[in-house]
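The instructor's notes for this session suggest beginning with a concrete chain rather than abstract definitions. Hand out the sequence below and ask the class to guess, before any prediction is shown, which regions might be ordered.
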Amino acid sequence: MKRAFVTVERAGVFICISAAVLLGSFMLKRSLFTKAGTARSVGIHLNEPVPLQIIDWSTSPLTLLLVMDNSCRFCSASASFYQRLLRETSNGKGLRAVAVLPQPNPESFEYLKQIGLDVKDVAQATPKSLGLPGTPSMLLVDKTGIIRGMWVGQLTPREEAGVMDISCPLLQPVIVQRHASRPNARAVGQRLSIIS
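After discussion, reveal the predicted structure:
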């Protein structure tokens, strides 16, 4: 009788541990591959055209698209880096910055003013319509509308320094090509507001 009780008790413990392991692995998989995960793919790539027809790319040798959303806390947190980047590249070097937000332009301009980002051009489009999984994102586009650089998600200080290194000499497309072996300069990361 005692032996049967011990066997049932061990079986119960085994079942509980197995259930906990299965549940834990399910939750880990779900947290890694959903909204905040790194397994999201980007629908656009370097050396492909930007699916945004409302911008005349030929007005500047390079255009930096800052894809944001006024409800994205990572966009607001990235504003100081964007301002520094624009300040460093605005010395008559031919770089135009365009903020792309899903909100109507008056609302977008108000948001940009609120976060201290001085961008003259604003376009209304969703990140999803651009093939991006979320915000913030940056796209460096040449005068023919071809993507020459891409960064998805809020950048770490080290990644920001890398962007600044290639941006000071006018974000040279040749240098940006170093990232061609990686679809993005930064894989889609956890600091990304995901589009639903």
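Then share the key points. The helical segments are 2-32, 73-89, 105-114, 157-167, 173-176. Residues 8 and 14 are 10 Å apart (CA to CA).
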